[in-house]
Design a protein that fits this description.
The protein is α+β, with helices and mostly antiparallel strands. It has four helices and nine strands. It folds into two domains: 74 residues, TATA-Binding Protein; 76 residues, TATA-Binding Protein (2-Layer Sandwich). The strands form two sheets. The protein has a five-stranded antiparallel β-sheet, with helices on one face. The longest helix is centred in the middle third of the chain and has 17 residues. The protein starts with a helix and ends in a 9-residue tail after the last helix.
Length: 177
């Protein structure tokens, strides 16, 4: 979309695919957040900024993200906006998985001190940063981990790298009576 801030307001008031989650505030530059049904069986959240940039969330693969972005551009074209699909790139991937055991966060942090940090007063998870693949792992005591990285391959590498470290610091299973 080009230029006009009121065009975003027109977009969500006249578009059949858009359900606003938050109201845009044109005087402060707050982005418009929309819940959009772009794919037949999946819905996603789109954040449209006044600087003509848009972000897509809640998609499960890079191919889905590209298809969703193309469909968003097409829907906006049908509404009469001058839109072209260009400069598509995936900049962040978030993965969540659960280990079959709990984690002793204090032991995990002590054993991996230069890379891992744990501040229970600030956040309930230990943070493990892997700089050479640019990935960050949040480790929770329940065994749940969230991995953030620039692409799917780096996220998978981070999970493979951290699993042995987590296995060393697993909580002992409670004895059954």
């Amino acid at each position: 979309m080009t230029g006009c801030r009121s065009a975003l307001v027109l977009c969500y008031t006249s578009g059949y695919h858009f359900w606003p989650i938050s109201e845009p505030q044109t005087n402060t530059g707050t982005p418009l957040v929309l819940y959009v049904s772009l794919l037949q069986c999946k819905s996603s959240t789109v954040v449209v900024f006044f600087s003509d940039c848009s972000l897509l969330f809640s998609l499960f693969s890079e191919d889905d993200a590209k298809l969703g972005a193309r469909r968003l551009a097409r829907v906006l074209q049908k509404l009469g906006f001058k839109v072209r699909f260009s400069a598509f790139k995936v900049v962040n991937v978030l993965a969540v998985c659960s280990m079959p055991f709990g984690i002793q966060l204090v032991d995990f942090t002590i054993k991996n001190r230069p890379i891992a940090s744990y501040e229970p007063e600030l956040h309930p998870a230990a943070t493990y940063r892997i700089k050479h693949i640019k990935a960050t792992v949040q480790v929770f005591s329940t065994g749940s981990i969230t991995v953030t990285g620039p692409n799917v391959q780096n996220v998978a590498t981070a999970v493979e790298q951290i699993y042995p470290l987590l296995f060393e610091c697993r909580k002992p299973k409670a004895l059954c009576k």
